Amino acid sequence: MRSDMQEPVVILDTFVQGVGRVDEVSANLFRVCFFAYDGQEKICVAKFIITQEALLTVAQEMAGRQARARVLGESHSPMN
Questions:
Q1: Which residues of the chain have pLDDT under 50?
Q2: End-to-end CA distance of the chain
């Protein structure tokens, strides 16, 4: 987690296995549905309304972490 972010109340982690639907709500706003499997069935576990810039930031951050892990020979990024 970024150190410059405040979390005034505990926000629980939600396990996600994939992206279900991405719907354009309006210009530059997207509803993203995340799912996890319950047996063979996909269950929606979270939905966010998010800007395109935020989606790109998430993708870039994840790609950067994966690249650093490959260079350092790590199997996953350590949680901070």
A1: 1
A2: 6
